[in-house]
Amino acid sequence: MNFESKTAEELMATENSAETKMRARDVRVSYGDTEALHGVNLDVYRNEVLALIGPSGCGKSTFLRCLNRMNDTIDICRVSGEITLDGQNIYERSIDPVQLRARVGMVFQKPNPFPKSIFDNVAYGPRIHGFTRDKEELRQIVETSLRRAGLWNEVHDRLDEPGTGLSGGQQQRLCIARAIAVNPEVILMDEPCSALDPIATALIEELIDEIKQSYTIVIVTHNMQQAARVSGRTAFFHLGNLVEVGATEQIFTNPGDEKTQDYITGRFG
Ligand SMILES: Nc1ncnc2c1ncn2[C@@H]1O[C@H](COP(=O)(O)OP(=O)(O)OP(=O)(O)O)[C@@H](O)[C@H]1O
């Protein structure tokens, strides 16, 4: 059987298997009276890079924000359906969204370092979550996170300087270091390179390639070459629906749906 072309029933059957890190079932999202996502079923596998692609306004970012309840912060937004992380419904009352966002971190389109020093940007999460017993442990976490984000060599001698003083690409790597510092399991990236030049973009793509062994990554991108370069699977969204999901190579060379074909060949979007 083709692993990538499971029916909804077969997907349900895998719900508790170790390969599924996050599972979305019949996810509907409305902003006020307007439904933006019309019942999405999608699994995110452990340690994969999953790319979400599709024309502007199709609901990629809306879906991404469901995965760590960032939509909770939008007053008019309503989410229904079920999303699980390791089998647990993340919309249960008992789930603290702040704790959830430590497990499912997020990197935004525009680098958004806090108006704090480089050190404090990375130390912020471990401090508020009480991860460290002493200053040395915190320093270690900051160094490790900056190293993993490929930024240590550029900033180790100016950790006290403001994060906002770095270049755009460095700021984005700082934001990745900040996400990594709380030891997340999943990292959501919402067009993380759209504000960056090609060199800074290449560095972020290399970084994604390096860190994917340790994290599950879901990335929204408008750049199809980027999806092809960084992801193992790609999901194509259109007008609030998930049209298809499959191995990236298959989606880009032999998509199952005409709409996907039209999008990847530039006929719309
Ligand atoms: N905060 C919001 N308030 C009202 N409507 C919203 C809000 N955010 C998104 N929408 C609407 O939901 C739909 C999906 O938007 P979303 O940003 O998820 O799409 P997208 O595929 O990520 O688009 P893009 O590629 O342009 O970022 C759009 O019609 C958009 O106008």
From TrEMBL:
InterPro entries tied to this protein: AAA+_ATPase (IPR003593), ABC_transporter-like_ATP-bd (IPR003439), ABC_transporter-like_CS (IPR017871), P-loop_NTPase (IPR027417), PstB-like (IPR005670)
ATP-binding listed as a keyword: yes
CDD domains named in the record: ABC_PstB_phosphate_transporter
For this protein, what is any one GO molecular function term? ATP binding
Q: Which UniProt keywords apply?
A: ATP-binding, Nucleotide-binding, Phosphate transport, Transport
- Could you tell me which residue ranges the ABC transporter domain spans? 22-264
Pfam families associated with the record: ABC_tran
Give yes or no: UniProt keyword Transmembrane.
no
Write the protein's name.
Answer: Phosphate ABC transporter ATP-binding protein PstB
Tree of life domain: Bacteria
